[in-house]
Specification:
alpha+beta, Alpha-Beta Plaits, five-stranded mixed sheet, 3 helices, 5 strands
C-alpha cells in the first residue's frame, strides 16, 4: 500500500471514532468516501462526513543528499453535513462538529505515526443557503515523508 492510502485509512478511522462515548460533542451518523448530495443522505445518517484525498504537492526532502526521500503535502477535504429544523440547534451542531473533526484528526495516534505534520487550513461553508441543513468543507494539509523509489 502507499502512504497516501494508509493516511486516508487513518483519517476515516479517526472520523468514525467521533462519538459522545469517545469524549466528543457529537456522534457522527455516517462516514464514507463516496459523497452524496444532501437530499440523498438518510436523516438517520446525519451528521455525515465525507473525507477525500484531494490535491498533493511533492518536493525532495533533502536536496542534494541523494537519499531518495520525498516530502508530500496532501490536502484532505472533509465534507460535513448536519440537519436540524431548529436554527439554534443546527448552528450548535455545526460548531460542535467542526471542533470534533479537527480534534479527531490532529489527535489520532495512528495517523500521527504516519505523518510529519497536520495543519487545519480552512473551512468553507454553504453560507446558510440550504434551509434546515448546514454543509461545509474542512481542509487539512498533511505532510508525510516517503522514499521516492516506493512512491507516495
Amino acid at each position: 500500500m502507499s502512504v497516501r492510502y494508509d493516511i486516508m485509512t487513518q483519517v476515516t478511522s479517526a472520523l468514525t471514532n467521533i462519538t459522545t462515548d469517545n469524549d466528543y460533542n457529537t456522534t457522527v451518523g455516517s462516514v464514507g468516501e463516496k459523497i452524496q448530495h444532501w437530499e440523498q443522505v438518510n436523516k438517520s445518517d446525519f451528521p455525515a462526513l465525507f473525507p477525500i484525498d484531494a490535491d498533493e504537492a511533492k518536493d525532495s526532502f533533502a536536496i542534494g543528499t541523494g537519499d531518495g526521500n520525498m516530502l508530500g503535502t496532501l490536502t484532505v477535504l472533509v465534507t460535513a453535513m448536519v440537519f436540524n429544523t431548529d436554527d439554534d440547534a443546527r448552528r450548535l451542531a455545526r460548531t460542535n462538529l467542526m471542533l470534533d473533526v479537527e480534534k479527531a484528526l490532529v489527535n489520532h495516534a495512528a495517523l500521527a505515526a504516519l505523518i510529519v505534520d497536520i495543519r487545519p487550513t480552512r473551512i468553507v461553508t454553504d453560507k446558510g443557503t440550504i434551509p434546515d441543513y448546514s454543509i461545509w468543507d474542512q481542509e487539512f494539509e498533511i505532510d508525510y515523508q516517503y522514499d521516492r523509489e516506493d512512491g507516495g
